[in-house]
TrEMBL record:
<keyword id="KW-0460">Magnesium</keyword>
<dbReference type="InterPro" id="IPR036412">
    <property type="entry name" value="HAD-like_sf"/>
</dbReference>
<protein>
    <recommendedName>
        <fullName>Acireductone synthase</fullName>
    </recommendedName>
</protein>
<keyword id="KW-0479">Metal-binding</keyword>
<dbReference type="Pfam" id="PF00702">
    <property type="entry name" value="Hydrolase"/>
</dbReference>
<dbReference type="GO" id="GO:0000287">
    <property type="term" value="F:magnesium ion binding"/>
</dbReference>
<keyword id="KW-0486">Methionine biosynthesis</keyword>
<feature type="signal peptide">
    <location>
        <begin position="1"/>
        <end position="18"/>
    </location>
</feature>
<dbReference type="InterPro" id="IPR023943">
    <property type="entry name" value="Enolase-ppase_E1"/>
</dbReference>
<dbReference type="GO" id="GO:0019509">
    <property type="term" value="P:L-methionine salvage from methylthioadenosine"/>
</dbReference>
<keyword id="KW-0378">Hydrolase</keyword>
<keyword id="KW-0732">Signal</keyword>
<dbReference type="InterPro" id="IPR023214">
    <property type="entry name" value="HAD_sf"/>
</dbReference>
<keyword id="KW-0028">Amino-acid biosynthesis</keyword>
<dbReference type="GO" id="GO:0043874">
    <property type="term" value="F:acireductone synthase activity"/>
</dbReference>
Amino acid sequence: MFLPLLVASSACASTSTGFFSGSGCSFRDASPVPHHHTTRGVSKAGLRCGSSPLLLRSVSTSSPFPRYFREAVTGGGGNARTVVAAAAADSSYSLSTNDIRCVVMDIEGTTTPISFVADVLFPYACANARAHLAATYHTQQTREDIALLRAQIDKDLAEGVPGAVPLPQPDDTDQDKTIDALVANVQAMIDADRKLTALKQLQGRVWRRGFESGEIKGEVYDDVVQALAEWDRKGVKSYIYSSGSREAQRLIFGNTAAHGDLRRYLSAFFDTNVGGKKESRSYYEIWQTLGVDSPSQILFLTDVHQEATAARDAGLEVLISIRPGNAPLPEDHGFQTITSFAQIAT
């Protein structure tokens, strides 16, 4: 377990959780880093106490609880007073202090347990894709879904993607043979957890049947619901950006088991039609759509380090969500983390 500690050498004596301030001294705490990663992931720009720059370094302690500490010292002056202040490892983040107007959220591992997606949604799509395709095969919507899948499968075959199998030609009248090939490809895509628009679109159609029949109910963390309600009261708009289709997103939030329809708190839904979630350009497009003056007025919440990096590169504020079952982060990821939306203050 790690707890950040800041040692500031100066006249700075006043402290508060997550922030350190005093006579002309102000800077925000950041995520703890091991001693051999001196200042990595910690922005040094603007860290000053009066006219003296603050230098950050990590030190260890022989405390009964092994922890790493960060030390900030001013250059020179052996008579300067030293102030030691401890802060919680996951200090709160203030929307108003950071001038946040919009919050954009990932779903899996952020608002919703990964287990819900892996153990409920994916198996349901695998088990029911064939029935959905057979029942709707001649509808315009399913024909369009099949055309999108065909284009992806042809690309996969050309690139030698494992699990890809060719589809019968579009003019082949053997419906069962086409559905068999489609299901085989869909199964392989799901098993590989591929974030493909063609796959996610079909999954959304299949899940709709499950949500409408009551076989599936959405799952959202309680702290997320409380935060959405609070942000709504304070005029902060909330959005979803997920690799799952917009239809699937609306189904999850519109049919939760414990909280009913949460769509009243959500202003819009974005999927991979706006771009891949690990591509910085996608977040630029979202900023342009939301219409705020600066991308820094948007807070993005995700559990995926590559997504966080892409959003930060586009100028967005970012917090990484730490939830049970989430993939581990790189040791020197450089982002502030939260374990609950309750840590985001308005």
